[in-house]
Amino acid sequence: MKRRDFLKFIGVGAAGGAAGFIIGKVSKPPGAKLIPYVVPDENIIPGVANYYSSLCTLCSAGCGIHARVMEGRVKKIEGNPLHPVNKGRLCALGQAMPQVTYNPDRIKGPLKRRGAKGTGDYVDITWEEAITIISKNLSDIAKSGSADGLYLLTPPQRGNLGALIDSFLTAYGSSNHYQYELFGQRNLYFANHAAMGLANAPHYDIENAKYVLSFGADFTSTWMSPVHYSAAYGEMRQAGKGGRGALVQVEPRLSLTGANADEWVPAKPGTEAILALAIAHAVVEKGWAKGGDLDGWRHVLAGYKPSVAADLTDVSEERIYAIARAFTHTRPSLAIGGDGVSSYQDGVSGLMAVNILNHLAGNNGATGGVIPNPEPAIKRDSAVDFKRRISTLAADAAKGKVKALIIYNSNPVFTTPVAAKLASVIRDAPFVVSMSSFLDETAVYADLILPMHTGLEDWGDDAPEPGVGTRVMTIMQPAITPYYNSKGAGDVFLGVAKQMGGRLSGLKANSFAEYLKDAWRTAYSKDRQMSASALTFDEFWEGALKRGGWWPKATVEARRQVTVSARSVSAHLAQMPARFEGKDTDYPFYLMLYPHSAHRDGRGANLPWLQELPDPMTSVVWGTWVEVNPKTAARLGLKEGDMAAIESPSGKITAPVYLYPGIRPDTVAVPIGQGHTQYGRYAARRGANPIEMLPHSEDARTGAIALNSTRVKLSGAGPSNMVKMEGSTKELGREIIQTAPPDGRSES
Amino acid sequence: MNSLSLIKQLIALVIVGGAAFLIGYGVNITYFYDRTPEQPIEFSHKIHAGDNKIPCKYCHLYVERSRVAGVPNVQRCMGCHKIIKTDSPLIQKLTSYWDKKEPIPWVKVHNLPDYVHFTHKRHIKAGLDCSLCHGDVASMSRITRVASLKMGWCLSCHEKREVKNGKDCWTCHK
Amino acid sequence: MSVLNSIGEKLKSYRVPGYYTKFDHRWGMVIDLDRCNGCEACVTACYAENNLPVVGEKDCANSRAFSWLRVERYVEGEYPDVKVGFIPIMCHNCAKAPCETGCPVYATYHNQDGLNVQVYNRCVGTFTCATYCPYDVRRFNWRTYRPDKPLDEQLNPDVTVREMGVMEKCTFCIQRIRAGKDNAKDERRGVKDGEITPACAQSCPTGAITFGDLNDPQSMVSKLALSPRRYRLLEELNTDPSVIYLKRVAKDGSTGTGE
Amino acid sequence: MAQQEPESNNLTYKGVNEDVMGIITRSGLGYYLLTGAFALAAIGLFIMPWAYQIYLGQGVTGLNAPVFWGIYLVNFVFWVGIAHAGTLISAMLFITQTPWRRAIARGAETMTLFALVLVTLFIFIHMGRPWNFYWTFPYPNQRQLWTSFVSPITFDVFAIGTYTTSSIVFLYFGLIPDIAALSHTATGWRKALYETLSWGWRGTDAQWSVQAKACMFFSAFIMPLVVSVHSVVSWDFALSVVPGFSKTVFAPYFVTGALLSGFAGVLLMLSIMREVYPVMKKYVTNYHYDRIGVFVLVLSLTWSYLTLMEVATGLYANTSLEMEHLKFKLATPPYLQLFALMIFCNTVMPLVFIVRKVRPSRFGRFVVPVFVLTGMWLERYLIIPNSLSRKFLPWMWHDYAPTWVEASIAVGTLCGFIAMFMMFIKVFPIISLFEVKEDVGIPMRNGKRH
User: Fold this and answer.
1) Which residues pair with A77 in a beta bridge?
2) What is the distance, to the nearest Å, from the Cα of residue D195 to the centroid of all Cα atoms in its chain?
3) Looking at domain A186-371, which CATH architecture does it have?
4) How many other C-beta atoms can be found within 10 angstroms of the C-beta atom of residue A661?
């Protein structure tokens, strides 16, 4: 190589290196930024978490929570350790609360319909416009003299929001506040009221019970107040206080609670009430009953001899006597009637039968039994309105009575059978407002969509139901400033009232927060137990905000004894065994629907954490499945993962088969929760909604939708892509889960 | 040896030049990163901390309580500058942020990767002086980074000061 | 030669993490299987606390779900005598961890708190630790998983978001342990029993999970660990796990799964 | 027993030089097109999918939670095995002065070299973050951190590193006299290359003496490596507690298997080369096939015995862990069929070598080694992902199926191996000139045997 060439290379190399160096300098991406507060918030230290006490709004249990907030963003939800309902614990659904707030599919601002109903074609509007539209429509309706045509559909309201809504409706001139929830326990309220005169749900003292006889109550997973009852279950299992409590579960399909039970009694679907009455019969017959009027009971129970019931229920006579003996001789004992018995067309009867059992064993009002709750501190106008139910709403709509429909935080199109025709009711109503955070199956039919604050952004309060034997009031306070352009429901109603004026001018509060505080002030001044806890209201309010609400320090309350009389009960025992839609020759299987442990009635299906949470009993994720006994499946030639068509007289869905040994061979079970057609990217077009194939059958007394009153047939429908997390569920003697005898001796 | 043909020579030159370019680029972004980035307002630590002897903790509020020291909020700046030197163009820039109620987008000079757990609180409570890591800020008219903030730099100090568990990975990693 | 000497001196200070002779703590967990009802609240709590990504249906089908903590269910018998048992399984933080011997770069090692920790940014992804782990609790970042915006707003800033190609696992919420020790240090005291709770134990509705220092004989875990019902999973492998289970109680000694 | 001498009939120094130089330079366009095709296939099937995998992560593979090691590790172990025959033939047979090694040693060593390239590649391919591979080496660093010397993976780094280095050096030392010889006749860039690489070799007595000593030293040095490297590789598995991995028999089992596959590889390589370059028939004769065949037979029998041991000890243990693992491997389709195929390939097929006539036959030269190689690949597959599919907790049992990326990389690396080999042949003598010449004898004797 020549010298000149060498120099050339050196030159080019140096030039290239320098160019690269300079370009590296110039083209550097901008560095990270430090964004200070303009005005500091005294409560916020960047990098240090704040905890706000609030209320979990994802189910009706009413657990107290702590929201962990850092730099204005919610990071985690934890149970409030002081709260009497959940004692610092929290279920999977509650944990997923931040995913509601930060859900990518949340509606970001008020929307007005542009295209046809159901197409989801909306335009953005401002809140002022939205409030104006509502006010104008409501004024027009009021002017035309049909103020009663305003219908409001919400989940059961227990706090001051319900009070506000009711005063709004009353002032406006409507009485149509429909409170609907699929698992709203209407039958339970009715049965307890009819049998014991209780307006509220009682407290089932599982914690202190030593023998729990549960009729299809999945109380550690979905029923009523699962976290509270799970905590109680945990305590019950401890041998500390007079021995370990036993749990006996009566249900055709093993639920999560059933899986933990000591005994599983797979009674034939529809005959659980007969079994309960047969046990009661045995109790009376053997003279184990407590209380008087034995003749009256003998008369009521005459038709339910264990020997007769054994044939009907598929539970042997000896077993009925054994359960009756254990139930009356283990003290304290407790019978619980859950969704399993109440989900028939005549669900009240089953719950009545359970009430009889508790009465005969002397459990009502006793520690470890059924404890009546005191009156909640927030006085509600009505407990559960049995007159206003889905069928009456549909009937009113058919008569053209519905002029305007406001739906708040509820998705009835998804949670009612197609046969109930709610979709057409909402589609045909002249003016529909949806107050919802998500574009769900119901909101898609609305003329106006008002995005709601989530529970982490809003004010509110709640008196949990069931209570815990004491009075509990929970405050919900905003942990973060609203992430989107949303509003709280209370503020919307107050805003409309302000704009309409006139007859609504009585609702004067500037904001719902103010309304709430005023309501608490009133309660504080009237309620001696409340005012005893602090000197001034401001102190009381500060303390309540800090603690998460108010509840008396002493948890012991005077317990009312309640009795069940034979006469009051006998009127409500009818129709046994339960009726089923579909002939058993054409439709050989009983269909059981139950709430998915995380999605419940479908509300959790848009949260990715919950979609990916394996179902505790099947480990299936991201979809629906149908549980079939392996023997039945073998008979039908179905393998696990095969798609099966499930057909009832009223409809048909397809779902993959999961071979489930914990189900009766004559029963199939499908979880509710999936099968959304709307409701965001994680939920939509995933799995099937089994409610679709139900007939619209209600309990005549309460209007509760009967989920288990259908027979179905099953046929193979090709392969599926069911995703489950489990490899094998056989332990193969590897001693993974070891057991010990009850007395605590270590076992070899 | 013969001189290379023109085309071969060109190709070789392109290769050499390209390689040198890449090396130059790499050397720059690895070793000659910008330690003194330009800030939205030419704030001078020299005037504040040096000449006027304002203590660090007066503005960096959270340094004893949090893992971050905290940049002063705009209100704190305005607390003095409503009165002091209001005619200076830089202060007018500050005031315009305040009037618009906008935060000032300061550029981060001391940045650590996400997988590093560092807390100012612990270091301040151990009695370390700010200048140990941040240099003589009081003499900087534009803030510049003096420490490498690399793992070896952290370790050498932990080693020298015999920090308890100071060389354990999870003391600083997360 | 002086250069070599100085390099030699330097190398002497090089670390071989994990060979502590004295441990400050031994964090451990007692899980009462008689209380556990398998509800999986703990699983979601773990997702929330530790920034676990959601991988979606397709990766789930290939067993790539991220649950550091899973609840296994074992079913014995046929209808109607079906016995079901649940057992939550997370990293057992073994004192003699098989995974630690596998890692060539000390991405996983035993720290002075008796924890089997994972340094995410040190991991090169040889999979050895996960292969050696008898409890199958290690999870791998198969892809770059990022939550859809704005779901990333709830990411816990105390826990890093792991990069693609990195192995990860439960470390008993080590960020909470660190915060707890930090608070105690601020107040110039030791860590109190019950002060530190991992997310799973905190959320557990039935109160099945207890967490604490097994080195402290007065702690709740140490007391529970003396229960006659105690056992440890796959104890025959001599991994000396820090997770202690309490046996499920069978009513008549025959129900319940297993032996 | 009288040894049959190789038939080095009528070979002269000049003839040898010309033959070997001919292999290097005289090839049709077809050969280069084929090389190019393999190289392109390597780029398309290996480099590009690998880039895809590095970009998107290991998620593109079929690996999952319990089965973290799939066919990348299978290929890793497989190619380590292939790399073994080269060393054995070169070093062990060198030390034992076995004469028939001379004509085939260079080819075997070359195969070792390129197999080791793939071995190294597969380590990086299977890593989650291959760009941090250098963290596995102990070097002074600001982190003040050693690597973990108790990790079998670190053993691997050392074992494979040592093995690769010494294999390259050993190959190169043997090449020096040949390169020097070639530099006399070569022209153009080849001449420049050979002159540079021959390091001024002039063939003086001193140089020959040093070269011979060096070769002897490296033979002695590499010989234990044959045993240790694959033992270390087996410890990657055997040092775990996983049922199916944790076997004491693994070290000898893996070494035997490696040698078996290595010999099969050499056998196939020689046969193909002879087809491509008929001139090689002068050097690689039926005698060589006979010898290699005996080796394959003996190794196959040893391997079969150890396989029986592996299964039988599992059965004898009769624990749930071992039984479920064996059930999955031996009685679950498709692994049942694959296991049967493996036994057929590795035990039944090599038995034909009992018949002497079969050893140099076309069947023995082509069909048997292909079967053995397939069988040995299956053996690793049935050990690695299969054991991981059935670990301790049945809940986490999950199966594994490779994806197109893994399959493509497996094929692509094989193409790359072939392409590299074909290119090597075009630059360096694939038959050791000076060693063959030792067989020929000095020219004065005019090629007569003595």
Assistant:
1) A67
2) 30
3) 3-Layer(aba) Sandwich (3.40)
4) 20
